[in-house]
Amino acid sequence: MKKEKNTDWIYYVFVFLSTMFVFTYILHVGYISSGSMEPALMTHDVTVSSRIIIRPIKCGDIISFKRENRDIYGKRVIGVAGDEVMIIGGHVYINGEKLEEAYIAGDVKTHAGETVIFNVPENSFFVLGDNREDSYDSRFWEEPYVKREDVISRYLFSIPIHLLYKQG
């Protein structure tokens, strides 16, 4: 009687390597640790973003990126290369037009001290958190722009883990 070879391990290795490939080159999974993007992204939620960015990043997109300290942030793109971003009286203007921001909760204002103007350089983005009153973003950074090469992914969807924290 002949013994059969057990080749089940090949299946598990394939699944493992495929999963590693997907999460290294295709998807980025993140955890929301602060309220800076509320109400769009709630604290404790898990986000799934695409590392493959086919169309150009545009205003309104939520991106994940690395900063100098190598921490990963998630913010909304407000200005792209060539845009003039002005913050006046708690409101944002892009190239002289007031930005309508339906994603901001209620009467939240965008404060930056006095009137400030940012001119977004090539291959860069100006980003803000949706919860402007509790967000560390382009308004406050010494180098206010996110370089294209520092972008990790574009937001796709989130898993609302925050709902579990509200129960009980």
Summarize the structure.
14% of the residues lie in helices and 33% in strands. The protein has 168 residues and is of the alpha+beta class. The strands form two sheets. It has a seven-stranded antiparallel β-sheet.
Description of the molecule:
The chain has 168 residues and is an alpha+beta fold. Helices cover 14% and strands 33% of the residues. The chain is built from two helices and eleven strands, in the order αβββββββββββα. The chain has a seven-stranded antiparallel beta sheet with strand order 1-2-11-3-4-9-10. A four-stranded antiparallel beta sheet has the order 7-6-5-8, with no helix packed on it. Strand 3 and strand 4 form a beta hairpin. The longest helix has 19 residues. The radius of gyration is 20 Å and the shape is elongated. The mean pLDDT is 91.
Write down the overall geometry.
elongated
Percentage of β-strand residues = 25-35%
Give the strand order, joined by hyphens, for the main sheet. Answer: 1-2-11-3-4-9-10
The percentage helix is 10-25%
* Secondary-structure content class: alpha+beta
Which key terms come to mind for this protein?
elongated; alpha+beta; 168 residues
Annotate the secondary structure layout.
Elements: H1 8-26, E1 27-31, E2 46-50, E3 62-66, E4 72-80, E5 84-88, E6 91-94, E7 97-98, E8 116-119, E9 124-128, E10 145-147, E11 151-159, H2 162-166
Antiparallel strand pairs: 1-2, 2-11, 3-4, 3-11, 4-9, 5-6, 5-8, 6-7, 9-10
